[in-house]
Amino acid sequence: MDQKLVVVAWSLALFVVAGLAEIGGGWLVWQWLREHRPIWFGLFGAVVLVMYGVVPTFQPEASFGRVYAAYGGIFVVLALLWGWQVDDWIPDRWDIIGALMCLVGVSVIMWAPRSG
Q1: 3-state secondary structure of 8
Q2: Out of 41-50, 79-88, 107-116, which region has the weakest mean confidence (pLDDT)?
Q3: Inter-residue contact 73 to 105 (CB < 8 Å)
Q4: Which residues, at least 6 apart from 18, have a Cβ–Cβ distance to it below 8 Å?
Q5: Could you tell me where the DSSP H helices lie in 35-92?
Q6: Contact present, 32 and 45 (Cβ < 8 Å)
Q7: What is the chain's mean pLDDT, rounded?
Q8: Residue 116: what pLDDT?
């Protein structure tokens, strides 16, 4: 398998894991505070949010700013998918178009050819 493809696949997998940790942890805290769930929802959410902070450090890209800028686009897509699958909210065509635009931005930020 092409080395560049392996790096892209690994990077995308890390983005997805980080996104699920951030959204899932935030959702658990939301459930605790807004939906009056037991405190263990909030505590578990806090642990998951810490995991979110750790996962991006495994990205092959060395630039913190580049990784987090690109992650923002992945987060948008995952947040829409979470809302659709977990909260029974259906994204409209504009949400989908915006999400696709974010993915184009992620691709340019992370994997565009660079000199040097």
Answers
A1: helix
A2: 107-116
A3: yes
A4: 52, 55, 56, 71, 74
A5: 39-54, 64-85
A6: yes
A7: 94
A8: 65
CA dist., res. 13 & res. 33, Å (int):
30
Q: Can you give the residue ranges of every domain in the chain?
A: 3-111
Predicted confidence (pLDDT) at residue 87 exceeds the cutoff of 90: no
Q: What does the alpha-carbon distance between residue 2 and residue 55 come to, in Å, rounded to a whole number?
A: 24
CA atoms within 13 A on the CB side of 10: 13
**32, amino acid identity:** W
Give the tokens for residue 23: 């959204």
Q: How far apart are CA 70 and CA 63, in angstroms?
A: 11
Q: Which amino acid is at 43?
A: L
